[in-house]
Amino acid sequence: MNTNNLLPLYDICVVGSGPAGIILALEYADLNPNKSVLLVEYGSPSQPAQNNLDNSITVNNAVNHHLPADCTNKGLGGTSATWGGRCVLYDDVDFIDRPVLKGGCTWDERIFADVKEHTPVAAKYFECGEAVFDLKDAKAVKPIAEGFKQGVVTDTAIERYSMPTRFGKRYQADIEAKKNITVLQGYEARSFSEPDENGKVQFLTIREVASQTIKAVAAGKFVLAAGAQESTRILLRNKQIFKNTGAPAALGKFYQGHLSGKIASVKFYGDPKKTDYYFIKGKDGSYSRRRFQFSTQYLKDNDLLNTAIWLDNPLYFDPKHKSGAMSMMYLAMITPVLGKKLAPPAIAHSITKGKVNKVTTHLGNIVKGLPGSLTKPASIFYKRYCMARKLPGIFLYSPQNTYALHFHAEQVPFEGNSMQLGADGESLNINYTLTDADVQSVVKLHHTLDKWLRDCGCGELQYWFDEDKLPEAIRQMSKDGLHQSGTTRIADSADLGVVDRNLKVWGTENVYVCSSSVFPTSGQANPTFMLGAFAVRLANHLTWPAKNTPPLQQQEVSTPINLTT
Predict the structure, then answer these.
(1) What is the rounded distance in angstroms from the CA atom of residue 372 to the CA atom of residue 306?
(2) Are the C-beta atoms of 221 and 512 separated by less than 8 Å?
(3) From the CB of residue 111, how many other CB atoms can be counted at a distance below 10 Å?
(4) Rounded to an integer, what distance in angstroms lies between the CA atom of residue 244 and that of residue 75?
(5) E strands, 346-490, where?
(6) How many CA atoms are closer than 13 Å to the CA of 522, on its beta-carbon side?
(7) Which three-class secondary structure state does DSSP give residue 467?
(8) Using CA atoms, how far apart are residues 23 and 112, in angstroms rounded to an integer?
(9) Residue 359 CA neighbour count, 13 Å, CB half
(10) What per-residue confidence (pLDDT) applies to 554?
(11) Would you give the DSSP letter of residue 490?
(12) How far apart are CA 416 and CA 233, in angstroms?
């Protein structure tokens, strides 16, 4: 390689500029003002609509998994370009191995306790308000609906919403202002050098997407923060970095997302005006919202998967809801040009289900609901798209006190769900399915919620399908690929996982992964906020390693190596 293709020595090289990469780079740069950070991003401002990375991925199950172009993004800010902003914390039960997980929970509650110490800083980056995700300690919290009581089912867990859902736009100026951060856009991470006998990797080659020119990056530490798909693919393609220990058996396996959809409504018995169906707005202008969850003890005792269920709107595409406002918003979403501007593909699909359905009946709803059919969507549009603190979503009041229930459920860490390299050693094959345990847990927890509400005298569930049709309905409606975890999972040994509890790749001394792919269990939570907290934690660990683990052997990186291509 020509010496012109050798980059200066950096203290840390971060691959990927999604929320994790941006938070890690900024936090490390703040903690280490005299150290240099290189942020490498595949996307660029001039990139075409499609890219070779997404186009080289094959998904074996289009029913339950979105195509990569629908759920990932390239460029500064990464997938936050189409992120809905939901910030949710994991739960204690996610760090407890249960029989249903079959040994797949390879992290523990000590990690959770450690990560929670970094959630206040993460919350500042997300601008989602206080790092408080449960109202149980708040004063004078009223039940979600009249008659509800805490117990097996809880109603105090909340989700928060990020204001800078587009991290690239929000933090570009902050990154540019940091003299110790260098950004390279339009470069793909390719090959790590072989580690020495101590596991030290000297350099990473990167390839310019436009010209295919190869450059070498020498750094003290390397962090893969390129999202689950690409972080996993880079490790699968670089088996040489495991020469001292052998490639971890778990690499690329135990891929998980979430089961998600609606199979029932809830009919509350009490005063509809006392039902807390909408957003809670904090003093700082941040939004949060309540959800039903299930106690740790109940999930453990009944060997069930962690699941959240929240109040939602009826299915937009079905005009039986008789809401002029909903019909108006549905027709806007299926309008070819307008719909693409209102929501990214995966979110739009969750609303429309890809269906153009009974347009005439929807128009009838709009006419009957005038003027509210127009004024309510107009008000929502203004709050959602024109205000600095945007309205995170759309939830409509029900005078009948009846709401659809949206479930968001954990998956079993199933070895057969995987990411594997194709025969060419470059393409990526995603194998993904739903297990019987995944589906049955969703059904059983709906029954649990129904019984609890009835026992409280609070309400009841009204199922949309016959009992024997529920499993197949869940299989048909659940579609993920947005929340990717498990393929480079944390564990206390290379026999069980890919990275250690400080996110360092087993068999190396200075290569780390900061991606939701390190999460061994998926829980009920969207992983983005949790990953942000891990990014803050990693920045601190790379600054003060002794605070997290016994001191690591510190070695200086040699000067850049002159490569030949």
Answers:
(1) 39
(2) yes
(3) 16
(4) 34
(5) 402-409, 418-421, 428-431, 459-463
(6) 29
(7) helix
(8) 19
(9) 7
(10) 35
(11) B
(12) 17
Neighbours of 144 (CB within 10 A): 22
Question: What's the length of the chain?
Answer: 565
Q: How far apart are CA 482 and CA 285, in angstroms?
A: 27
CA distance 446 to 442: 6
Q: Which amino acid is at 93?
A: V
What is the token pair recorded at 564?
A: 């030949």
C-alpha distances out from residue 471 to 384, 444, 446, 482, Å:
35, 11, 12, 22
Integer Cα distance of 348 and 338 in angstroms = 11
Mean local confidence (pLDDT), 318-345: 71
CATH number for domain 3-87+163-253+486-547, candidates 1.25.40.10, 3.40.50.720, 3.50.50.60, 3.90.226.10: 3.50.50.60
Distance CA 223, CA 425 (A): 22
Question: What span, in angstroms and rounded, lies between the C-alpha atoms of 254 and 485?
Answer: 8
Q: Are 427 and 58 in contact (CB under 8 A)?
A: yes
113 three-state secondary structure? helix
Spatial distance between the Cα atoms of 73 and 77, rounded to a whole number of angstroms: 8
State the helix-helix crossing angle for 372-385 and 359-368, rounded to 10 degrees. Answer: 100
Per cent of the chain over pLDDT 70 is 91
Cβ atoms of 497 and 250 within 8 Å: the answer is: yes
- Map tokens 């790590």 to a residue: 192
- Residue carrying the six token digits 């919290």: 141
Question: Is the entire prediction scored with pTM above 0.85?
Answer: yes
Residue among 157, 62, 102, 80 nearest 411 (CA): 102
Domains of the chain, by residue range, sit at: 3-87+163-253+486-547, 314-394
Unique residue bearing structure tokens 């135990």: 254
Summarize pLDDT for 429-467 with one digit per residue, the tens. Answer: 999 999 999 999 999 999 999 999 999 999 999 999 999
Confirm if 256 and 521 have CB atoms less than 8 A apart.
yes
Encoded tokens for 353 = 């289900």
Q: What is the DSSP string of 70-92?
A: HH---STTGGGGG---EE----G
Q: Any bridge partners for residue 183, and if so which? A: 39
Structure tokens at 370: 């005038």
Amino acid letter for position 239 = K
Q: How close are the terminal C-alpha atoms of the chain, in Å?
A: 6
pLDDT tens readout for residues 347-400: 666 676 667 777 787 778 777 777 777 777 777 676 666 667 788 888 999 999
Q: Is the dihedral of CA 331, 351, 433, 421 positive or negative?
A: positive
Cα–Cα distance for residue pair 385/82, rounded to 1 Å:
14
Q: Is 203 exposed, middle or buried (0-12, 13-18, 19+ CB in 10 A)?
A: buried
Assign 420 to helix, strand or coil.
strand
Percent helix, strand and coil across the chain, each to the nearest 5: 35, 20, 45
Specify whether the CB–CB gap between 428 and 419 falls below 8 A: yes
Q: ∠ CA 264-266-272 to the nearest 5 degrees?
A: 150
CA distance 53 to 227: 12
CA atoms of 236 and 230, how far apart (whole Å): 10
